[in-house]
Amino acid sequence: MNAAPVDPSAHRLSPHFSLAEMTVSATGSRLGLSNLPGPRELATLTRTTERMEEVRALLGNRPILVSSGYRSPAVNRAVGGSASSAHMTGHAVDFICPAFGSPAKVAAHLARNLAAFDQIIEEFGDWVHIGFGPGQRHQLLTARRVGGKTRYTAGIEGA
After folding, report:
1. Distance CA 61, CA 113 (A)
2. Is residue 129 assigned to a domain?
3. Would the CA dihedral through 87, 141, 122, 46 be positive or negative?
4. Sequence-separated (6 or more) residues with CB below 8 Å from residue 107
5. Boundaries of domain holding 141
6. Domain assignment of residue 89, yes or no
7. Which pTM does this prediction carry?
8. Distance between CA 101 and CA 118 in Å, rounded?
């Protein structure tokens, strides 16, 4: 007997994060690409949302707006993501927390207060990328577009 497909909008991964918001992709929707994770990625994504609950608490329990969580390989290609993107394994989240402050302020606060992470990247002044991959590099970066290319500098600007 086959199980009924999971309704992403009703499936909670943690108290404040649903499968729907952790798999949101405007590009994927526009192009008709599936962005539902497989069992392994779903298990990882569930652990990532548990870590995002910790992030939310550090940000004063303010709402977090996810722009990208899990990305299927097809969606990752469509958005121009890295071939080794942690989004494809469910380890990374791009988000903002407007009630806390700018992405730079959020990234700097997390850099000072979050104990375990792989990457925190303040990207283009528009969002924060946080990765909880197995590397645990504690890498802090700022991404900017320079001459049409993405350039990364060490540290969080304005931190």
Report:
1. 14
2. yes
3. positive
4. 120, 121, 122, 128, 140, 156, 159
5. 16-154
6. yes
7. 0.91
8. 22
Flag whether 1 is in a domain: no
Query: What's the CATH number where 80 sits?
Result: 3.30.1380.10
Which residues lie below 8 Å from residue 113, measured CB to CB, with a gap of 6+? 58
φ, ψ at 13 (rounded to 5°): -95, -25
The C-alpha atoms of residue 80 and residue 2 are separated, in whole angstroms, by 35
What confidence score (pLDDT) does residue 1 get? 46
The encoded tokens of residue 89 equal 């394994």
pLDDT of residue 157: 80
User: Which residues of the chain are under the pLDDT cut of 70?
Assistant: 1-10, 158-159
The pLDDT of residue 9 is 56
Specify the number of domains making up the chain. 1
Question: Is residue 9 domain-resident?
Answer: no
pLDDT of residue 135: 83
Is the alpha carbon torsion for 89, 67, 120, 142 positive or negative? positive
Q: What is the DSSP string of 116-147?
A: S-SEEEEETTTEEEEE--TT---EEEEEEEET
Tell me, what DSSP letter sits at residue 49?
A: H
